[in-house]
Amino acid sequence: MPRYIGKEMSRVDGVAKVTGRAKYAAEFQVPNLAYGFIVLGTVAKGTIKAIDTREAERTAGVVRIFTHLNAPKLGPKASTEYAPPRNTREQDKSFRALQSDRIYFNAQPVALVVAETYEQARYAARLVKVTYNAERHQTDTEAVREQARAPSQGQPAKTRGNPQEAMRNAPVRVEAEYRIPIEHHNPMEPHAAIAVWQGDRLTVFDKTQDVYGVRTHLATSFGLPEPDVSVISPYVGGAFGASLRPNYYPALTAMAARELKRPVKVVYTRTQMFTGHGYRPHTIQKIALGADRSGKLAAMIHTAVHNSSTIEDFNDNTTGFTRQVYACPNLYAPTLIVPTDLPTPTWMRAPGAVSGMFALECAMDELAYALKIDPLELRLINYAEVDPESGRPFSSKALRECYRLGAEKFGWKDRKFEPRSMRDGRLLVGWGTATGVWGAFQRPASARITFRIDGTAHVTSATSDIGPGTYTVMTMIAAEYLGNRPEQVKFELGDTKFPRAPSQGGSQTTSSVGSAVHGAALAVTAKLLALANLQADSPLKAAAAATDVEMLDGRLRLKSDPTRFVVISELMRRNNLTEVTETFESRPSPERQKYATMAHGAQFVEVKIDPDLGQVRVTRAIEVSACGKIINPKASHSQEIGGVVWGIGMALQEATEIDHRYGRIMNPNLQHYHVPVNADVHEIETMFVEEDDTVVNPLGVKGMGELGMVGVPAAIANAVFHATGRRIRELPITPDKLL
Amino acid sequence: MRPFKYVRASDPAAAARAVAANPHAKFLAGGTNILDLMKEDVERPSELVDLTRLKLAEIKAARAGGVSIGALAKNTDTANHPLIRRNYPLLTQAIVAGASGQLRNMATNGGNLMQRTRCQYFYDTAMPCNKREPGTGCGALEGLNRIHAIFGWSDKCVATYPGDMANALYALDATVRVRNAAGRERAIPVDEFHRLPGDAPERDTNLGHGELIVAIDLPKSSFAKNSYYLKVRDRASYAFALVAVAAAVELDRGRIGQARVVLGGVAHKPWRSLEAESALTGKPASQETFERAAEAALREAKPLAHNAYKVELGKRAVVRALMRASRLA
Q1: Which terminus of chain B has a smaller tally of CB atoms within 10 A, N or C?
Q2: What is the pLDDT of residues A357-372, one digit of tens each?
Q3: Are strands A598-609 and A616-626 parallel, antiparallel or unpaired?
Q4: In this structure, how many other beta carbons lie within 10 angstroms of the beta carbon of residue A440?
Q5: Mean pLDDT across the stretch A556-566?
Q6: pLDDT over 70 (residue B143)
Q7: pLDDT in tens, A180-203
């Protein structure tokens, strides 16, 4: 019986966070620090004609002003990142600051003012005068959608069956276009870096989801061997994908520090974040579904177009999951991109999936109404028993149970089919549902465990904890398999001195890093078993492998006969050991290749809408996830609740607004860019249908961080239709759209 | 933030004199707006005269059944004051519809009247804005103008006054008492306090430079029983109004006596609709009457490219607010 896994545990870093002991990137104290403030450009495309820094340089405290004219060139870039969710290696063509006079996007960094204090730097930054040779720009995806093309990365869109013909012959068809504006992650913590050089050795404190990725980026930037670069990022105040790729500021900060021969700190302002870390792309989707009269899907044609930059191809893989959600023999589902004079988009929570599933799950609702079939029933009719894309079985798939449990909890059977048929006094009531989906990914990861004679353990892996509770879950896994108590385990992350781990993206940390911690604990166990069995009279001789024994409460004992054991401290003392250290690299098992590995969920949402004023309240949301084994229910529910809140924001509020005349983002702040506030969040209930999956990884876990939001925007839009009879196909659903 | 001189005023006259003496000086009260704008480089005062130690925070009963509210009384204290809650519930509703608890704890009544527009072009110093920098043009006129004015705008400026409190003050016939550097006091009827943009959108109000708001006077009100503040916004809290309505009626056996209809979020100042009010006076309180009043209120609206919805929303909001004020909904 597990002692910790599957039981609620409060965050081990909770006290440090609420008492301020947890240090975030900008909070590290280093002596002789100088402060940098970024100057942003004001045209969307062109070249810098001139930069006048004289007035700024004369102001108090200014140390130096870097522009493309005096900034050293950074080295060629190497690949830094495996892109979730599809594990394709991304060539790093990411934007780097101050490398030329070329302007690629509005609010691009054009200078860095470094001064003795932050306030001096910010003041001087306002005095830098830049003139431009502006060129004609294009920032409106809508205007150039016809020029969209296949992205250079990712898998080419294979056609399944004969979708055009099947569509023509389908007795029931729906076709519609859906639009999602650019959205920004807006984590609480602003991005920040502190760069410290000691000779040719570089240390950077950064806010990142991937310390090793930033290390590669910096090493190639400055032509250093990777071991000479340290990246430290123990705490991250939310990221949601905004810190997956190396952003431009760490290299900029390190460059300034190297030139000035003193440490430099750069912190983004909220406004600078809007062009400093990528965003969810503007996505236009056309979707056609054809079905027979019983509701069985005959054809799906789903084309997504989203914007990228002129610098690089970003592929959000918007239509990726369309291929795998429903059984359908004829399908065409390409994702196309079109360059715009904007910064490069990036992954944002549930990237691609939530955008694609918004369109698909709204279209399924439209099809349900065209067929006069209950929307949930339509999903069951088209339930994919095996992966429609590969034909492989699922390693586990409890989606049917999610539908059943969610519907029961929600009271779905009491739903009246007709739109505008349910009311609460003056308010229109709408009930909507949608399916959620995400991959059960795993990537190579390493962890090191030092188990000490006093029963304590030090566990390390260079992953990160952007909020899901990684510190806690790794502590639980270590304590479970080392047989000690969580208080005896110290888990550390976010430092390139620790064993390599993948970026914390794509909902794969527990499966990847958790498997490594589990493996390292088994390696410690194996080591102790080997030591024990050096003794001729070892009580563990019956154990053929480490898996035949377990560590528990200071003993190494036979699983089959717990009365046969050795006391670990005595064993170590006999061998003159005070500690045992093992490093383990876990890799996805070949067995996974025989299966489709995915996580699923179902969302049920109630909205209440004031028919006169158009204001939508999400009064109730039931979110059911099937994502393997749940290690820490407390943090897991928290993840899914957060996912639902994100879905509410995406459905009703979030939009980055661009004035295309200037190609400039006009709401780069939290007063104009709305995210949900507490008053927008009502009842949210999250549940898990646990799956016993021995294929995905040794712990049987799947990702959940993205999953919880995937179906929510569609479920809300479907509920809005049910309430009002109005099908809003362009997010966000603000009051003006419902008048 | 640009360097500035900070002066702590010892009395109202000294404060007024200090600002009057420097054309680039500004008063500082709660700081919830001006400090933000200074950090964004939108406001660039060379001197801030801090009023917070002045004794101007009293809320007290005044002659003839009215109430006098100190300019430095906090929004929170004003909204919660028993005299206000009892006699001017519309004002309480309007104040608590605005901002957040934390901001209302800092914000003063005088400062609330002085808050500046939330137009995105005003906030972005890279963009044209006649209000921020006269002569540069209006970015919003042909740009993004979903949150902008439908009444009283000019081709120089389409910004709105963003506040809630003032909408109620307009409905309650408040007077703003101000004092100049010479110590002379004058009373400005609140509906003459804010300006329409015209050719000088840089001027939000009719205050002279150095004139200090000392109090807001409310006359005895006959609207305490039947008033309602409705705010429609993009999220449930912590957002500026798309459209707000301060509605108040005198009701005598179902018939309307005096009425007030003031719209917020639709113009460069709170927009009192005399047309709506005259459509109400003498009529029975009913949905039909209110719909006619709403039509009258929005008849002259001139929406921009992205805010036509405010016309329909405004009508519906007027009806709803009047229904609520009359306790018919």
Answers
A1: N
A2: 999 999 999 999 999 9
A3: antiparallel
A4: 30
A5: 96
A6: yes
A7: 999 999 999 999 999 999 999 999
The model's pLDDT over A427-471, given as tens digits with 9 standing for 90+, comes to: 999 999 999 999 999 999 999 999 999 999 999 999 999 999 999
Q: Do B313 and A736 touch (CB under 8 A)?
A: yes
Q: How far is CA B284 from CA A406, B288, B321, in A?
A: 50, 9, 16
What tokens appear for A659 in the block?
């004035």
- pLDDT at A88 (0 to 100): 47
Q: Closest partner residue to B232 among A426, A661, A735, by Cβ?
A: A735
Half-sphere exposure of A453 (CA within 13 A, CB side): 11
**Burial (CB count within 10 angstroms: exposed 0-12, middle 13-18, buried 19+), residue A21:** exposed
Q: Do residues A716 and A605 make contact, with C-beta atoms less than 8 angstroms apart?
A: yes
Per-residue pLDDT at A86 = 43
DSSP state of B207: P
pLDDT at B78: 98
Strand A565-567 relative to strand A81-83: parallel, antiparallel, unpaired?
Answer: unpaired
One-letter amino acid of A87: N
Q: Is A294 exposed, middle or buried (0-12, 13-18, 19+ CB in 10 A)?
A: exposed
Rounded Cα–Cα distance for residues B276 and B304 (Å): 22
Question: Tokens 């709401």 identify what position?
Answer: A667
pTM over 0.95: yes
Best of B121, B235, B298, B304 to mutate (most A CBs within 10 Å, chain A): B235
Output the six-digit token pair for A560.
Answer: 């089959």
Beta bridge partner(s), residue B255: B252, B284
Specify the residue for token string 């969610």.
Answer: A406
- Indicate the SS3 state at residue A285: strand
**Full strand arrangement of the beta sheet holding A229-232:** A62-66, A109-115, A34-40, A264-267, A192-198, A201-206, A229-232
For residue A73, the one-letter residue type is: K
CA dist A643 to A110, A440, A561, A703, A711, Å?
36, 17, 45, 13, 10
- Average pLDDT of span A138-162: 92
A663-702 residues touching B, CB cutoff 8 A: 664, 666-667, 669, 671-672, 674, 676-680
Count of CA atoms in the C-beta half-sphere (13 A) of A714 = 28
Suggest the residue from A106, A671, A731 to mutate for an interface test with chain B (most B CBs closer than 10 A). Answer: A671
For residue A152, what are the CA distances in angstroms to A213, A277, A322, B117?
A: 21, 21, 20, 45
**Residue A36 near residue A82, CB atoms below 8 Å:** no
B158: which chain A residues are within 8 Å (Cβ-Cβ)? none
- pLDDT of res. A94: 84
Q: With contacts defined as CB-CB under 8 Å, which chain A residues touch B126?
A: 40, 42, 664
- Could you say which residues from 34 to 93 on chain A have a Cβ atom under 8 Å away from some Cβ of chain B? 40, 42
- Chain B contact present for A425, CB below 8 A: no
Number of H helices, E strands in chain A: 18, 31
Q: What φ, ψ does residue A166 adopt, rounded to 5°?
A: -60, -35
Phi, psi at B98, each rounded to 5°: -100, 150
> For A70-99, what is each residue's pLDDT tens digit?
999 998 765 554 444 444 445 567 899 999
What is the mean predicted confidence (pLDDT) over A590-603? Answer: 98
Beta pairing partners, A198: A201
Of A57, A64, A41, nearest in space to A257 by CA: A64
The values of phi and psi at residue A701, to 5°, are: -105, 150
pLDDT at A90: 52
The answer to whether the beta carbons of residues A730 and A178 sit under 8 Å apart is yes
Radius of gyration of chain A (CA): 27
Residue A389 appears among annotated catalytic residues: no
The pair phi, psi for residue A326, each rounded to 5°, is -125, 150
For chain A, what is the mean pLDDT?
Answer: 96
Whether the CB-CB separation of A595 and A391 falls below 8 Å is answered with: no
